[in-house]
Design goal:
771 residues; mainly alpha; two-stranded antiparallel ribbon; membrane (chains A, B); ion transport (chains A, B); calcium-activated cation channel activity (chains A, B); transmembrane helix (chains A, B); CSC1/OSCA1-like_cyt (chains A, B)
């Protein structure tokens, strides 16, 4: 039970550390040498040139204009200045809608907080239950529901508030769903011609003894979609080839490193040892060694390429089928093709750069088996992850280290180091696990067989949310591992569960306030510093970069990271909704989180992140669903809490809330979700008609030529992107791009791709603010 | 705890009563006067003429050929003789697949019973737990799991058996799903051209200020399906008109009654009183009175018809849109048309006779609200239905009757009557409720807004199953009302629930054996007697029938009644699966039920029932799902039972069973369900191509002219069917029908309809066995 002043101190510390991060960012940001770390987005869009090119030598690396240091927070208004339509042009719809999640948080919680502080806090404050209870209590508890005596009529206020908050949340959610759906449809409608609009991915093509996959696909679609079928592209199993190409790239980096070393110090040729980790073995000339290795790999790659193109076994039973019209593609994607619903599976093709090629060939039966395996594995991961960690912890103590590595003994026995290790070791296994958790979840999703990066990230996000819900939210409220909770709940009566959790909720308010400040305030402020990319960029810059192109590759703009970012936001929605009625003092902290994150991430999206794909906000149904889940959880917990408070007469009124919320969710799902899943024929027809009128003699076949070629084939002949570019430049554009883009957004991602239309881009306001 | 001999006595009684029913049926059936009650199917198919037409007078009504009495059970082999393909031609796929549910029961339970009796019964029998327990027990209990001492290793047998039974059930289910899906697709593929193959039902057409619904539909589909759209038919709101037509039909019956009366006794014109129930009021000539009334109604009907056709407000925002090809219709039904997913909702049009016209105009928002209301209402119906019944029961006691109707007092006070009423009254309210339950559930489904009779019946069936599961199955095991159970379960820990139920399962075995014999043996045997239709037919025949056509209308062949029959079968699946491991002695009783029902219903389907619609076995996914549910329930209850038996080490092994079963269900759902929901494009294209090759100059437009006219318009001009017939006869047939059908099956149902192809009908074997 922390007092208000305790929380004040914690707040001060976190605010100070946040400010420290901002200050560091402000200083690092305006150094020209860091320009590519803090403004990579503008480089990839070709709107900013290297500041190293001109000016005095010192000013190439340090900013000597001291006036610019004074305005160290001016990035904040600048980040807010870009209007939303331009933001969509600049960074894509995914990013723009992702920012709306933070706005949604503000829209939901600001009115709720106002209402709670004008009505509920006075009701709570004017009691003296705690004073009479003889328990120790703090001012914060006086503001919470704990201050109301059992069986009091004042609980009606909380009941009414619960209704008001639910209705307000649902209203905002519905409006937001409506807006996002409209934005998505508008975005899709105003897009330029892209191959994925005309293309359908066909999977599980049944084997045929007489025909090759390619012939089979052609015949099937010529028969069943005679008026619309145009062409197709088979999918090759190029997993081995991509391994080789990746290997080659790595070796090339080493070669560059040694060549740079040699150039800087031409007197001494660099040598290396060929054995394990370069620690022993024969000493050879490094440049020659790697040059030879690259030559060997290039030979292997060309052999493998030939093998793939000539061997029919390397063709997977999947194909990209292109149609003459968007209408034809929309029809094919939404219908069932064959009697056997597990063959000839069609779906809208993802963007080429969104594809996860490795999973294209998994047959149907394996998909269902894999799903079962992953479901079971995830269950064990969530509820039993503490077991292996506890084992590691028990092994990784000082005694066993001393036993296995006796030569470390004298160092360990130093008192300071010993206590450090003893305090540090038990936590490290857990910490490492938590750092790798998103990766583990991503591997699970990949194993499960999703075929686009966007769906992989969405799936990982829902798993991560569930894990956090169980292990962070419930785990903090009911201390104990998830398995202990599970065991506890199984042995408890059904209506006891919300009671148990509900009753301990008010007591955990201060814990969560601290959590919000550390994770939500300081954590978000740290995000803007980009410490890891900063270090890596400078390392690469020093060791590997030779040409301007290398420098461009050394940039790591990163992405939003939907699979980790969104579940984090959702945790705040959950906390806000759960504590809105119970301990409203938590709400301002959450509002600060949402506001701060909005500004920070808007800045990052404008200046830094470069999305790998564009799913046109396909994740919104997930976001909506999880807020609904949080709402229902908050209602159930309030019900449990009130029933321990002997306000049982409120139970029937509280039960109707989740029923209504579930119904609301179903309504929204039916009303808005189809916009995120299917492409309406009316829209497709409209775009087709418009296009036919504008360009009657369009040659679409050429347009599709290599759109869905495996990226590895493009990159085989080295420096792939430029080759792909040439094909793309031929493409006529509906809306002329005003920006003279050197490398427009979509190309910059790994797998080559497609272009977005950038209507009426306002060059003035979209320039980065650079003093 | 009944002994074996108790059960033997009960079995004898029920077998005897079943035989009595069969005997009565055998005698009544061969009386010519009952021919239309026991063979209506053949009359509606036009394959049997009235036996009244020829022969001696006495033999018109009574069968005097005494040899035929000797072979009184010969209908059984006859019922089994018709091969399945012919059965499908004769009675439709729905009926044929419905019979397969009984066969499925046999396929599942016969091997399970064999295995149980060879392995599990000896294991149970060779213990002496009960003898040492000091409890009273019977031989039946010695055969059950109760005879095994707690913590015994013998429970491994039951565990292995549970696995074996689950795998066997799943294997049979999967095979059956596969077969039924193939049958459905074959049936659809071999069907003749029917309007519903080319037609899509469009609902929620948005209002347009400038265009009428008809123009709007035409423009929308001309734009969005330009190559495929052919014509459309708007839907009129003719609910009032159908009321008038129904009223007229009723009045006409009365007129017929009085005319008959007058003809039989021409000396005295029949009079009637116009007041309440004909008890008082002015006395008028009945024939004149009703003739005048009919005239007035006919005038009203023609005014109303005119009003509907001229008033644009009576056009509902729904339409039937017909396409040039099946491919076009399949595409339109499976795709989303408009940005707003709640307008222009398309789905495959049901057969005209399957349509439930009243629900065609419900807008989307109301649909979701109605669904919520029905869900809540059904919840209360299931768990609180005892409350109003208890109130009625408390009111309907002898004292209150004597108070309200004092003149009955002397009669009631007679001792015999008094005790009869006292024993009878409390039960009657419950009995009446249970009789009306299917109707109540059907009204709920209608309120919910389903638009076809088949979906109404499917929905009612699932509700009825749920009600039975809660109130019959759980209600019998844990005595007490559903609400008490619910309350009990809420206050109980989650893993206690299967324990509580599981532990009382073995004790209820004898109760369920009796239940099966009464409901499943005698009840099924009573079904074949058709007592209610028999009485009604003879009443109508005596009072109303004038012409042969009237006699045809007096026949009430009835239908299978999916909404009541299927849940009953499912209860037996549930009992069988739950008791297979616990008390295998129950299995033979269930096998007898399945065998007997199969024969009885096969006979009824061949000779009696006339389906109102043909959904091509669209109900199979529901059947499959419910058996899976029964399987999972049985696994959970076994887990609960074994954990009370201190065989807790088996729990982890038992938990994997439901996980695997759920996974199996999901696999089947994805693999087979689409065949029941969507029409594959390949199939559509194949039929289209075939048809185009055979009849290049087909005029489809005329074919659709009145296919989806509201049935009431057809019947307005009296004797609707013949008019509809004429239109139909024009239709060219792919496979010539060998039977010269006077009124082929589909026409005979209420709403007019379509024809089925009857390839290679074998006239020999399909004739009814008539000695």
């Amino acid at each position: 039970m922390a007092t208000l002043s305790d929380i004040g101190v914690a707040a001060a510390i976190n605010i100070l550390s946040a400010f420290a991060f901002f200050l560091a960012f402000a200083i690092l940001r305006i150094q020209p040498v860091n320009d590519r770390v803090y403004f990579p987005k503008w480089y990839t869009k070709g709107l900013r040139c290297s500041p190293l090119a001109n000016g005095a030598f010192a000013s190439k690396f340090l900013n000597l204009d001291f006036r610019s240091y004074a305005r160290f927070l001016n990035w904040m208004p600048a980040a807010l200045r870009m209007p939303e339509p331009e933001l969509i042009d600049h960074a894509g719809l995914d990013s723009a809608v992702y920012l709306r999640i933070y706005l949604l948080g503000l829209k939901i919680f600001v009115p709720i907080a106002l209402l709670a502080f004008t009505i509920m806090v006075p009701v709570n404050w004017t009691n003296n239950n705690l004073e009479h209870s003889g328990l120790t209590f703090s001012d914060i508890d006086k503001l919470s529901i704990s201050n109301i005596p059992n069986g009091s009529d004042r609980y009606w206020t909380h009941l009414v508030m619960a209704y008001a908050f639910t209705f307000w949340t649902c209203y905002v959610l519905k409006r937001e769903y409506e807006i996002v759906a409209a934005m998505r449809l508008h975005f899709l409608a105003s897009e330029q011609r892209r191959p994925d609009q005309f293309t359908v991915l066909v999977r599980n093509i049944p084997p045929d003894p007489d025909e090759s996959v390619s012939e089979l696909v052609e015949h099937f679609f010529l028969v069943n979609h005679p008026d619309h079928y145009l062409s197709h592209q088979v999918v090759y199993n190029a997993n081995k080839l991509s391994g080789l190409v990746k290997e080659k790239k790595k070796i090339k980096n080493w070669l560059d490193y040694y060549q740079n070393k040699y150039e800087r110090n031409p007197s001494k040729r660099p040598f290396l040892k060929t054995g394990f980790l370069g620690l022993w073995g024969d000493s050879v000339d490094a440049v020659d060694f790697y040059t030879a290795k690259i030559e060997r790999l290039s030979r292997d790659i060309s052999t493998e390429t030939e093998k793939i193109t000539n061997n029919p076994k390397s063709i997977m039973p999947a194909a990209f089928v292109s149609f003459k019209t968007r209408w034809g593609a929309a029809v094919c994607a939404q219908t069932q093709q064959c009697r056997n619903p597990t063959t000839w599976l069609t779906e809208c093709a993802p963007e080429p750069r969104d594809l996860y090629w490795e999973n294209l060939a998994i047959p149907f039966v394996f998909l269902t088996i894999r799903r079962l395996i992953v479901a079971v594995a995830f269950f064990f991961l969530t509820f039993f992850f503490m077991i292996p960690i506890a084992i590691v912890q028990s092994l990784a103590n000082i005694e066993s280290i001393e036993k296995t590595l006796p030569f470390l003994k004298p160092i360990i026995e130093v008192k300071f180091i010993k206590s450090f290790i003893q305090g540090f070791l038990p936590g490290i296994a857990l910490k490492i696990f938590l750092i790798f958790l998103p990766t583990i979840l991503m591997i699970m999703s990949k194993f499960e067989g999703f075929i686009s990066l966007s769906s992989l990230e969405r799936r990982s996000a829902s798993r991560y949310y569930f894990f956090q819900f169980i292990n962070v939210f419930l785990g903090s409220i009911i201390t104990g591992t998830a398995f202990q909770q599970l065991n506890h709940f199984i042995h408890q009566s059904t209506n006891e569960i919300p009671k148990t959790i509900g009753a301990s909720i008010p007591m955990k308010a201060t814990f969560f306030i601290t959590y919000i400040m550390v994770d939500g305030w300081a954590g978000v402020a740290a995000e803007i510093l980009r410490l890891k990319p900063l270090i890596i960029y400078h390392l690469k810059n020093f060791f590997l970069v030779k040409t301007e192109k290398d420098r461009e590759e050394a940039m790591d703009p990163g992405t939003l990271g939907f699979n980790t970012g969104e579940p984090q936001i959702q945790l705040y929605f959950l906390l806000g909704l759960v504590y809105a009625v119970v301990t409203p003092i938590l709400l301002p902290f959450i509002i600060v989180f949402f506001g701060l994150s909005y500004v920070v991430f808007r800045h990052q999206i404008i200046n830094v992140y470069n999305q790998e794909y564009e799913s046109a906000a396909a994740f919104w149904p997930d976001v909506h669903l999880r807020i609904i889940v949080a709402l229902i959880v908050s209602q159930l917990l309030l019900m449990g809490l009130l029933s321990t408070k002997e306000a049982a007469s409120s139970t029937p009124l509280l039960i109707t809330l989740p029923v209504l919320t579930i119904w609301f969710h179903r309504f929204c799902k039916e009303r808005y979700e189809p916009a995120f899943v299917r492409y309406p024929l009316q829209e497709a027809m409209m775009k087709d008609t418009l296009e036919r009128a504008r360009e009657p003699n369009l040659n679409l076949k050429g347009f599709f030529q290599n759109a869905y070629m495996h990226p590895v084939f493009k990159s085989v002949d080295e420096d792939d992107v430029d080759v792909a570019m040439e094909e793309w430049e031929v493409e006529p554009s509906l809306v002329a791009t005003k920006r003279t883009s050197k490398r427009s957004t979509p190309f910059s991602s790994k797998h080559g791709g497609s272009t977005l239309s950038l209507p009426e881009a306002n060059n003035e306001s979209s320039k980065p603010e650079n003093a």
